[in-house]
Amino acid sequence: MAPIPAWIWHQTSLIVFLLVILSIAVHNLWAWRRLSAYEPLGSSPALSVLIPARNEQRHIVECVRSVLAQDYDSLEVVVLDDVSSDATAAMVEQLAAEDPRLRLQRGEPVPAGWVGKNWACQQLASTATHPLLLFVDGDTRLAPDACKRAVAALLSEGVGLVSVLPRQTVVSWAEVLAVPIMAWSVSSLLPLTLAYRWHTNALTTASGQFMLFRRDAYEAIGGHHAVRDRVVEDIALARKLGAAGLGWRLLDGQDRVRCRMYYGFQEVWDGFGKNLFALFDNRVLPFAFVWLWLLVVHWEPLLWLALALPHLPALAPHALRAVAALALTIAVWMLTVRRFALPWYLVLLYPVLMLFVAAIAARSMLISLAGRGTWKGRAVKAVPR
For residue 164, is pLDDT > 80? Predict the structure, then answer.
């Protein structure tokens, strides 16, 4: 019997990989619990909502008002002005004059060896007075029962951290072509049932836009001080909790928390450029392998089909395998688009999306290795692990 050519093995491997991620996506339809699935408790521990804010005048008023509108009995809200150059502090001061639960904290300059946001969060935690700590980014908006439900999830799951992936609002073409990669990655590549049981870095994730800690768990792992030099501090904190046996959960917050991360091309280009390489702990080989593989998975079946169609029926087997791969890819993206209320046309634009994000990823690696990464006027340096 003649050996099977390598290119047939390769095509088959693509189909097997796509079957695996489709299985993960289907599994996560029920395994990935929604924030709204947790009923509020009769009484909840006192909660400190902590908001680091650097140049957030576009968002901060709506964010703070949504927090102050929470249906929660014992609540304090602290906004740290992280040396903003815009009207963020003045806006918060005006709101604080209207509600005694809110106070503005002036941030100190960032010490050497710290990422700016991590230093801001550490300062907030040090002045918070309650046993539960909720870190919320300044561009998020919360439904009135979001905090109650998150606390119910934290206590009922018995973990140290509950993080919530918000509904991401996408408007410009750059946002549409980049932001959905987060939802696709979690829903398709992360088998959550296994992730909660196996304390491995590769299966650990969190969303820094909404992170609720038990204070004792947060302090047990060293708080933000323990991840002071990490650009992707949310995942680093979740990994430390997992390693300590304190546990974490990531919830789907589509109907309770929303966020618009970036506005337009430049913010998408810079924001994802700051994070993508750091997600891989600034390691070149695994980073390059994953992004090259994702490009192959999303583009090769299209190329095979284009090459095979003019030469049918001789290349019919190639065409059939390419069609099978395309069908599986579209099915995965359909699940993502439906669950996260993303524009339906992403089901057809997924090759362009992946190419665009891969370009950002390549730039992320290059600027990080060269030490030229910046965000909101501050340098962001790669720290290899």
Answer: yes
